[in-house]
Amino acid sequence: MPGDPRPIGVFDSGMGGLTVLRALAARLPGERFVYLGDTARLPYGTKSAETVQAYALQATRLLLDHGVKMLVIACNTASAVALYVLEEAWEKVPVIGVIEPGARAGVATTRNGRIAVIATEGTVKGGAYVRAIKRFKPDTEVVQLPCQVFVALAEEGWINSPATLAASAHYLGPLFQGPAQPDTLVLGCTHFPVLADAIRRTVGSDVALVDSALTTAEAVAEALAAKGLASAPGSEDAGTVRFFATDSPERFARVGAIFLNRAIDPATVELVDLWTF
Fold it and tell me: Does the active-site annotation cover 147?
């Protein structure tokens, strides 16, 4: 089979979506990627649904201009409020969000039927995780917590700082006490996996942490196979990534390396103005 050599487009409000890109690259080493971080307008989690939808449409237009065959919304807030908008705008381009894969994994993981979801204010307010989890298992008890400060801590690279540990204890300490506590915690923001060590120190070793990046990568792999869009084995450009940012390529490269878990050359990050799309 010749395969489909076009790249996969991935976008996020900033660097958090690089955790999804890292999982995609590991799961799909034969694919090429185009990543856009809308760093000039982050965070999305405190903005209105209408604003995030407009930003998502602009980001998608840029990615489509670069010939992507599939779109991955590596942002929980955008997945919650803009997935259907993008699906309606571009019916022929498969669109994968991070919420449904994360919800499915949470339901598969829980043993006591109690799941906690930590996310941005926008994701929590929209209730998309609750709806998705209830679709898979209606009797699941779901608790949501907005943890907006985690986004800023992750963006600063403060992985295990005293401030991060204090924020984790403040947000999660009261919930993960007593016999009725959730046994599964869904990291409902792509920034949060880099804070997993600090979160683990608060919730303890018995609570399962669900990283939607890993489950999203599996969902993308399944969609590529089902739609016949996978690249042919041995592609010359396999594993390459083209980076775009809307502000400060140098900072994107510096902080993004924490999320991607490898160095990013600032010279390879292209500055783009989404207002033109």
Answer: no
